[in-house]
Structure formats: C-alpha cells, structure tokens
Amino acid sequence: MERRYFDDLKDGELLHCEPVVITRDAIIEFGEKYDPQPFHTDEKAANESLFGGLIASSLHILSACTRAVVEAQGNIAILSGVGMHEVKMYTPVRPGDILSVDAWWTELHKSRSRQERGFASIRCKITNQRKEPVIEYGYRYLIACGDMEMPRLKTQPVL
Question: Is 83 helix (H, G, I), strand (E, B) or coil?
C-alpha cells in the first residue's frame, strides 16, 4: 500500500473499518486484566448490577475499535498521537454485540511552527447491530507532510 501524507488527506474522508465482534470471553478477559469491575468479570454479580448482565468495559471498546480504525487508516505517515477528543458513552456493549465503526478525517491544519508537519483528527461513532449509539470519541495526530523522511524523536515532539 502506498504511503499517504498529511497533504493527501481530505476533510470528511471516510475510513472503511471492519465490524468489531465482542465476545463474552473477551469481555471477562479484558475486565480481569484491566478493569476488574464485577459487571465486567462476574456474570452472577453482573446480573444483579444496574446493567442486569455482563457488559464490556468502555476501555475494552475503545481498544477494540482503535484497532479497526488503525487498520483502516492504511499506510499514513503518522509521527505521533497528540491527544484524544472527549469520549461519550451511550449504550452498554454486551456479549455477542457487533459494532460498526464510522470514522472520518477532520480538523486538518498545518503546524504553524513546522510546515513539514500537520495535525489531523479522526472522529469515531460506534453503533451496535441494532443501530443504537454505543460510544463517540476521536484522536488527534501529528502527520508528516509530503514525501519527507520519517524522523526519530529523541525528545518530546515540538508542536
């Protein structure tokens, strides 16, 4: 796949993300390792919780959907991630849910101090198989412009 740079991106350009399937085992495994709330790790406790059953951690959903977004980006000359946009959670994700990831490039602008670099955001809206909103969030990236050599950062990036 040909390398793409900041100058190749278009505001509103869609990324074609694969669906994300969330399994019971994955919910429990992620919960046990990273977010050990009982409604993520214990079906009996989850059934007695506010949620009435096992649900995925929002961190699990962000991680799984991030993979789908990164795979859809292709060979983009990303120098670094520089932040995330606000995360809004709507509908809990349950075992067997199939998530659709709608993602697009936006907020593109060149760096004022380093013209060989640009900033771009990806905004994401995730829905389940019932078309219910699940989560919204976004990323901010620093991306190389043109056909420049990808530098190795020895210190903090100059933004």
Answer: strand
pLDDT of residue 159: 55
> Domains in the chain: how many in total?
1
Cβ contact 109:140 at 8 Å: no
In this prediction the pTM is 0.87
Residues whose CB falls within 8 Å of the CB of residue 37, separated by 6 or more in sequence, listed in order: 31, 57
| CATH code, domain carrying 40 | 3.10.129.10
C-alpha distance from residue 115 to each of 55, 141, 148, 153, 159 (Å): 45, 15, 11, 17, 11
Return d(Cα 57, Cα 54) in angstroms, integer: 10
Position 155 scores a pLDDT of 55
